[in-house]
């Protein structure tokens, strides 16, 4: 079976899993947030921020000038379709398929918002182009909503499509940090706004692109945050047992000697989620275990890390855990 055929078969099999439908709902909500950000804050103000939504606005306006009017949502769908082909073949099948759904649903969701509640109803004065009454407020609302949606989809190995795909390609093949890649690709698109917007609006768009990259990094780090826990104690067995058998996490154990007392101790290190760390601290408190504990935040984890689905699978095969 070819790699393409294997990917399709694998993802068809995934349709039967709870994980797929959970992520499907998450992707839909994420794209609804994206559609709200684009339709209510980007389209009225004609801000061209480093997204394919901004590029679609430029293309739509230029086509309108030459007498061939095309809706922004249609331009957006066409641009995203081209990028999706690149995503599927240059990144990976799972990312590509998730991004296919996310990208293709954005245009229809924008049309749905227009049908339900057009943004023109929010423009209270003739000639007004800002829903919030100030273009900077529109910019901040757009960046906040879009960045949150992007971080949510990145977390499940998907994306909102568009320049997220370009950034992923730059990250994979040129080893550029993902935040930097988003800013670079976004700045190029923002510069196309010189064709339809005055200099002031282009500068605002470039600032918005820069903010978008920073806020994405913040949300991504917050969602992926883990706790690196270091526990020094003379009674390590209950803690080790709780981490392995209750939390279903791994840990490393080291022999340590107290610098002040010279007494032998054991050091336990583990990576936990925020909730798991809270449960561990509660366990140590309930068991009255004497321990010195240090914890710090980790934003990225590579290698072997048990997801919720993996932990459920382990418990299914090892019911005593």
Can you walk through the features of this model?
Helices cover 62% and strands 10% of the residues. It is an alpha+beta fold and 321 residues long. The protein folds into two domains: 3-223, no CATH class; 225-317, Alpha-Beta Plaits. A four-stranded antiparallel beta sheet has the order 2-3-1-4. A hairpin with a 6-residue loop joins strand 2 and strand 3. Helix 3 crosses helix 4 (72-90) and helix 8 (178-191) runs antiparallel to helix 9.
Which of globular, elongated, flat, extended, rod-shaped describes the shape? elongated
**Poorly predicted regions:** none
Total beta strands = 4
The portion of residues assigned to helices is 55-70%
- Give the helices and strands as they follow along the chain: HHHHHHHHHEHEEHEH
Strand adjacency order, main sheet: 2-3-1-4
Main sheet specs? 4 strands, antiparallel
Compute the separation of the termini in Å: 37 Å
Oligomerization status of the protein chains: single chain
From the alpha-carbon coordinates, what is the Rg to the nearest angstrom? 24 Å
Kindly give the count of domains. Answer: 2
**What is the residue-averaged pLDDT?**
79
Number of helices: 12
Tell me the structural class: alpha+beta
Strand portion: 5-15%
